[in-house]
Each structure stands twice: as structure tokens, then as C-alpha cells.
Design brief:
Length: 111
């Protein structure tokens, strides 16, 4: 555990957390800001929403390039029932899932 303070949002984050390791960015940027500000520019990061209504879920995925990201989005639309299966479902697009924000619970600022 090694806490750092983010230069963007001044939040403290764990430099050695799995999420931080995956999203990259600088050692003084929290994973949230890396994704949000896209400071890690080597690869393409996209947020993809799935499901409808109360089960809606946002997944943050990292692709090797823009083409892969677009291809995935097209496939995603056709696979509305797709869930929790990493491979063999949405074409053969390579991606890494780096975050997920599901609709059931953990909403900050909403009671
Ligand atoms: Zn931050």
C-alpha cells in the first residue's frame, strides 16, 4: 500500500492498486483521472454501457487502438444480452476491462 495524492483531483489513491496498474498514467495521477482525462494515451479507453434500465452498467475498457474500439462498439450493440464473458462474444476484438460501474448500489451522492 503506497498512497499518493492525485495532482488533478487531490484525492489519495493507492499507487499499487490493480486498477492503477492497469490504467497506467503517471505516478501522481489517480486511476479515475487517468481514465477521465485520458492521460494514458498509448491505448484507447472507452466507457461502454450495457443493459437497460435498472441493470444498466458501465464498463471501462481499454483497446489497442481506435479501430478496435469502434469495432467493439458495433459488436456491443448487437450483443445486448452479452454479460460477463470476456472472450469469444464480441467478435475478436482485443480489450482489457479496467473498470466497471454497475447500476446496483454504490452510488455516491445518491441515497
Ligand atoms: Zn485524480
Amino acid at each position: 500500500m503506497k498512497n499518493r495524492t492525485c495532482i488533478h483531483c487531490e484525492d489519495t489513491f493507492d499507487l499499487h492498486s490493480q486498477l492503477k496498474q492497469r490504467v497506467g498514467g503517471r505516478i501522481n495521477e489517480c486511476p479515475d483521472c487517468v481514465v477521465e482525462l485520458q492521460t494514458e494515451i498509448k491505448e484507447t479507453i472507452r466507457a461502454v454501457s450495457s443493459g437497460d434500465g435498472k441493470m444498466a452498467c458501465i464498463q471501462i475498457l481499454k483497446f489497442n487502438n481506435e479501430d478496435d474500439a469502434d469495432l467493439y462498439r458495433k459488436g456491443w450493440d448487437q450483443w445486448s444480452g452479452w454479460n460477463n464473458q470476456r472472450s469469444g462474444s464480441v467478435h475478436d476484438v482485443a480489450f482489457t476491462k479496467i473498470g466497471e460501474n454497475s447500476g446496483n448500489g454504490n452510488h455516491k451522492g445518491k441515497s
